[in-house]
Every structure is written in structure tokens, then in C-alpha cells.
Amino acid sequence: MKNMQVIKKLVGESITESNLKNVDCYVYDNFALFIQSMGFCEFAIKEKHVHPSYMIIIEFGTEDFLVPPKIELKKNYYLASILSPNIPHEDKGVEFPNYYTIMIGKEYFESQFLLYQNEIPKYEGRQFLICHDFLKMLHLYAFESSKNMKNAQITLDCQTKLLTHWIIRSLLGENYDMRSVSTNERIGRIQTYIELHCGEDLSVPELAKNANMSVSNFNRLFTKEVGMSPKNYLIDVRLNKSIKLLRRNDLSVSEIAEQCGFYSLSHFSAVFKKAHDMSPTEYREKYQV
């Protein structure tokens, strides 16, 4: 099997080609994608085995999870989990697994993570959400790594960095859904404007004016392109920002309400509870990092 040397570096020196007989492997330097196409990986079910690299599992099922979800699931997102190097574990062997396994070299992952935070946590199966669009990028990586194209290393270097940063940002709560970004220049520009100014006092007429459109045409086109009205999109952006801030502990709930553009703490609480069936305070207690 080609790239067996890299696989051993990422998975462990004791892995054999026979262990991977049911697995499709897409490997490049510090990044490997394993898809169990014909059955389970024999190495993965070894009792209390460890890896020298970071392991990320992306699950596609809706019922049979490897580990029951401990976080709130969200439409258009997959459940993911991460395990730091050298932590003993074992996976259950399922004949038709519904997950992908990613291995990222320890030094490479940590060098990229330190661009975001000063300390690297120890992850023991920490769950997080990752956008469905991540799968598209994984498949592009798999295609490129399986072809012997001229200068493929240039593309693979870029894809490795992009995928690693996407995982890190998702792990830190910075998710995004590429499908929700409009290809219409005016609508896409307004989406960016909303993301940057969601804490300000924005109105639909003001946004329509920035798009050089009437309010009715703006509402119609925005809803068609994005799948929700401008008003609901603005609320969604504000709620997503509030979730990231609630997971931290450096701002009070009232300060978060103000920073995210809600009229008052009571307004924030009412909108948040309608969306998440719990108050902002209850959410913070349940999901705080």
C-alpha cells in the first residue's frame, strides 16, 4: 500500500496493511482520511490502542452514533468528536459504518491551533458540530490525494491547511454553512454586512437601501437566495454570535445581549428561549466550554 509510512506515522507503527483491508485511505504528509467502505477497520477495534496524532471522527448517522450526542444537534451540521494523541480508546466494529476518520499530525495540528489560542486543551472525545459543506472539501481532498497529478502537492498543502483550520474553527464554535452564502453579489454583500454589524441597530429598510433595492424586492430576493427572510437571518446571526459568547465566561448575559444587538435582556431571553427551548443562562450552564 502506498503511503504506508505516513499512515504509520499518523495511526501508529503497529498498524498493518491487513488492518486496512476494508478501508479506503487518502493520505498526504500530516493529514489522512480513512473511509471504511467495506467494513470496520481492524486496528480501530483493538482494545485500548492509541494514536500519535489527533483523531477526528465525523458521523453522518441520525440514530446509531458511536457515542450518544452530548451537545445540541443542529440542522445542516454533522456531529464530530476529537481525541488528543496517546489517549487509550477503542471503537465499536460496525459492518457498515456511517463515519469518516481523520488523523492530523500532532506537531502540525498544534502549530495551527496556537494561531487561535495560547494553550492547547487535552481532548478526550470532545464533541462539536461541523457544517455539512465540510464533506465537500473532504471529497475534493480525497480526489486530489488519489490522483498522481503534476504538482499535486501544491493543492494538497492548501487543502490540508484549509481542512485543519476548518476543524479548529468548528471546534472553537466558529461554524459556517457555505450553502447559505448567496452567489448574488448584492445579497452576498448584505450578508457580510450583517455578519460585521449584527450588534448594531439594523433594519430591513436600511439593508434594502444598502443593496440599492426596494424593501419588497429585497425581501423577495434575499429569501429566495438565502432560504429565510432578512429579519430572520439577522436574528439567526445574532443568536449564533450569542452562543459563542455564552460558551465563554468573560461577559455577563446582559452584556452579551447588548453586544449581539438585542433591544434588552428580556428581548434576548425571549428570542433565545424560542429558538433553543432554554434561557441563555441555562444554555451557558449546560454547554459552557
Q: Give the helix proportion (percent range).
A: 40-55%
First CA to last CA: what distance?
Answer: 41 Å
| Tally of contiguous helical segments | 11
Topology pattern, helix = H, strand = E: HEEEEEHEHHHHHHHHH
pLDDT below 50 for ≥5 consecutive residues: which ranges? none
Choose one word for the global shape.
globular
Q: What structural class do helix, strand and pairing data support? A: alpha+beta
Radius of gyration using CA atoms only: 22 Å
Strands, count = 6
Strand order of the main beta sheet, please?
1-2-5-3-4-6
Overview of this protein structure:
This protein is α+β, with helices and mostly antiparallel strands and 289 residues long. The protein has eleven helices and six strands. The protein has helices spanning 4-11, 106-113, 134-146, 152-171, 185-197, 204-210, 215-226, 230-246, 253-259, 265-276, 280-287; strands at residues 24-28, 31-35, 54-59, 77-83, 99-104, 124-131. A six-stranded antiparallel β-sheet has the order 1-2-5-3-4-6, with helices on both faces. Helix 6 (204-210) packs across helix 7 (215-226). It starts with a helix and ends with a helix.
